[in-house]
Amino acid sequence: MRHERVLAELFARVLGLCDGAGLVSGGVIAIAGTRLAGNASKDRNREFAKIAREILGEAKVTDQAEDRQRGEAGGDELPEELRTVEGRRAFLRDVRMRPGPMVVRVSWWLAAVRRVARALMLRRQAAALVMLCRVRGCRTGRIPIATCQGPRRLTRSNRTKRSSSPRQGSGPCQSAPEYVFDTKRIVARGQGREGWPREARRQLEEHRFTHPQPVPRSRSERLLIAAERLEEDLEADRRANEAYQHYKATGRKSDGRRFGRAPNPYMPPEVPEGKVNITDPDSHYMKTNDGYVQGYNAQAVVSEQQIVLAADITTSTVDWSQLDPMVGAAIAELEQAGVSDGPRVALADCQYWNEEHMDEVVANKHIQVLIPPESQARAEPRAGSTGGRYDYMRAVLKSEAGQQLYHKRPGMIEPLFAQTKHNRGVTRFLRRGGRRYAPNGDY
After folding, report:
1. In whole angstroms, how far apart are CA 350 and each of 106, 372, 412?
2. Where are the domains of the chain?
3. pTM for the complete prediction?
4. CB 76 within 8 A of CB 122
5. Residue 28 forms beta bridges with which residues?
6. Which of 51, 113, 309, 394 has its CA 20 to 30 A from that of 280?
7. pLDDT digit string, tens, across residues 157-215
């Protein structure tokens, strides 16, 4: 863990050595993805109500154990002179009036202020935890009232962990992204109302990827992070539906006319829906050829010599939105390694068919793309995938030059995954947290 950044820089250095040995050449690159399990069980996916019960249950058990050990005195009670407002004022006044140099008196006074603030903060944290579970659970009847009495105080172990290793940027308010909805792009996708929540979730996942949080060892802290994740998902849906309703109220159709009646108002659920893994909140439930895994979608870009040019992971369960990011990552790695010969043709399977990404790669990165509109095992075209670009791409792939190029793809990219997963037996990640897996990431 201490050498993560140095190891990330080592990737570009090794790529530069391969270029010096004549093993790296631009021209043709291949892109593909595979699913790898994370260091988490798929049986540890929990919904919000169950997470809240576990948070309260653990706190209650710990409180009962501490009561039996130390009685009612738990160690977090305020000192006698700090239990009232008048007492706290008198305490600070006494510290301020102590004799001695000004610097010493100021340092005493600041230390006293910190002591009072910390004692009050511990109480407020415990009260906030109880309020979270009551508001989100008890009012819907999904959490029994009897279990929501909550802890009377923070346990000694929790006080130590929270004071020694605070999580930076945790919580839905501190780490929420700035949602920006491009109406033209969303409407052009033809996804209807669902296009807005999809865009919000995409921005949320991107924000989590660029602002990673370490996964703590403490189960209680992981439970809090899992609950926050579900709260963030619910907030993303709220913001997306607000943007959609604003568009329907103020926007216009392609012919310039206003829309008809207002859409049905969005009614957010009382508690966040969905599930999140409490062992590794970054991991997702994904389908593989052998079933389902709790893990990540690992992406790779290789050259004709099977040299890895870029690698990364994503929590997206499909490859539909990975073409442009991976091509951009490969170009950046080649530039960092000092390789002048950049890619000119990108090969990928039908799962990477995304016209928006294809336009970006061809027009702005000047790289031609060969991607079949459907699987080669399909005899007939999919409904709605005929004419225009679809027929043009089929014609290119049926040409002699297109066949020669695209037939290189399996021999370029598939041996990488076979060597990694089958020969070396690397089928899961050992560390938790999505961003730290990325070999060329900053985290």
Report:
1. 69, 5, 16
2. 4-40+288-437, 48-164, 183-277
3. 0.71
4. yes
5. 345
6. 309
7. 443 343 334 344 444 344 578 899 988 888 887 788 888 898 999 899 888 888 888 88
